[in-house]
Amino acid sequence: xxxxxxxxxxxxxxxxxxxxxxxxxxxxxxxxxxxxxxxxxxxxxxxxxxxxxxxxxxxxxxxxxxxxxxxxxxxxxxxxxxxxxxxxxxxxxxxxxxxxxxxxxxxxxxxxxxxxxxxxxxxxxxxxxxxxxxxxxxxxxxxxxxxxxxxxxxxxxxxxxxxxxxxxxxxxxxxxxxxxxxxxxxxxxxxxxxxxxxxxxxxxxxxxxxxxxxxxxxxxxxxx
Length: 224
Known about the structure:
42% of the residues lie in helices and 25% in strands.
């Protein structure tokens, strides 16, 4: 899962990134409206943590841009300006939540998880696809009640494929999702093949049906 933190307070931004990385999120940062816009051109985000007061403008500009482009990225507005007008404006512009500063990082993490569950997984902590069960909170994968030992990259890869089931996912998109960098920057995708091979081997070893299909010249599809 990929998160964008748009916050100009460097210490706060660093603290958020450190905490969320421990929760297995990929994190990008921006400290201005302009750099936030640039990041949004490069990636779709599962959630954006957005400060209102930024050096080169107002965070509401970000919300207007998302709305104008019909983007579905989740947004949590964070601000020291705990005013009712700000909350109403942010929510009317499409924000999913509003969290006044100061806040506990554990609460921010819980709210991010809630938004992702609501937007991506119909509000559930558990994904079930036939004989496969994924616990989003515990980061546990089960095949017919048998637990799988997956690396973080393998878990992220499986979750990404399941989240986009029956869609062809390009190697570029997979590279971005599991590495945090732009996919076109890689000279080869050997690391994807390695992670995919290991994941498929572990799933097959647990008796899971082969849902992950290679689409020649394009990428992969999780077929159910």
